[in-house]
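ZP: hey, is the 4'-deoxy-4'-aminopyridoxal-5'-phosphate complex queued? I don't see it on the tracker
AM: it wasn't, my bad. submitting now with these inputs:
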Amino acid sequence: MNNTRIPQHLPLRNDLVGLQPYESFDTPVPVRLNTNENPYAVPKTVLRAVVDAVEHAVKSVNRYPNDGFYELRVRLADYVHKLEGLKFSVDQLIAANGSNEIMLEIFQAFGGPGRACISFSPAYSMYPRFCRDSFTELVEVPRVPDKFTIDVDKAAEKIVEVGPSIVVITSPNNPTGTHTSLDDLRKILEVAQNARVKSADANARAVVVVDEAYADFRDPTCGTGLELLEEFPNLLVVKTLSKAFSFAGVRLGFALASPGIISALRIVRLPYNLSTVTQAVVIAALERAPEMLEAVEEIKYERAQVLEQLKHLQYQGESFIVVPTQANFIQIGFSSNLPNFQQLPEKLHAYMLDNGVLIRKVGAPGYFRITIGTPEENQRFLNLLKSWVAQ
Ligand code: PMP
């Protein structure tokens, strides 16, 4: 999309003057390893059912959609039950157009002027925007350098010092791929449960959001924040069908939490936000969830292959820093021993793009990120990387 300059006669909010929109890359590129989707299209066997569902749904689009999307919530709860072996009731579940929309609802409901959110950087690039748009102060606690894990003691100190109303933990984290253990999550939840929240009632405690957009790619022994929901009434676990489930273009995210949190989100939610077509399509695909998730094991296998090849690569005598990952992407860094390491991701990005491969410059200085694609796509990336380092 063209970025026309915003003329001065428009009363744009003062804090938005000079800001840029979210950077998305709409130009066609043969190999797209930049946005962490599943590289495989919806399986043919599911496609027919989805198309039938659309055909049926469009017959009633003269009317508004079912606003409470009860059936969709039943199916999502059932999906989570089958996938994780944990049972939740429909009043513990809310859905929206992608988990981005859910996150915005969380910030609208629990953030606001005078309030703060703690996140652990580098983290997902939308969190600062959710803060900006809800007038919430963002306090970023840096992750441990080059390991990108959360220093739990530092997290605890900050929670007590800042008194945030929201704490966001992405696990596995984007862009680093690192996951946060259930033990560490529990420690953070326990601190948050006892810390006062500034600009809120004296009894209020922070909501702790665990963004699990990539959890379907984790090693099952890592566990899920869902296991702690019963114990911690201020915990919210956010999920999406955009990644493992191959449904990024449909836009469906959901959150599981205590019924009280769900009621709070319903206050700020836009009415009729999930279209009749979205609801129908998601219900049809959820009925065939195992088929939708068929490629996950293959992607994990491919991830291991790419990691193995990266281990043997060097640039100017320095190995790459390859961050351990539980997601469908890998964060890769240039050694800080290289004099211009901060500029190298930009150079590599340009070279890759010239050769039809899109990677992402994101995260800590000197790092870039690649999504695991099909075997052919990954090989193309690796071949290009090999020829670039040999230059
Ligand atoms: N959380 C994280 C950590 C993400 O990386 C993304 C997508 N890049 C999202 C949430 C949003 O995903 P969606 O809105 O497609 O569900």
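AM: back. Residues 36, 98-100, 124, 170, 174, 211, 213, 240, 242, 248, 253 surround 4'-deoxy-4'-aminopyridoxal-5'-phosphate (CB under 6 Å).
ZP: great, adding it to the tracker
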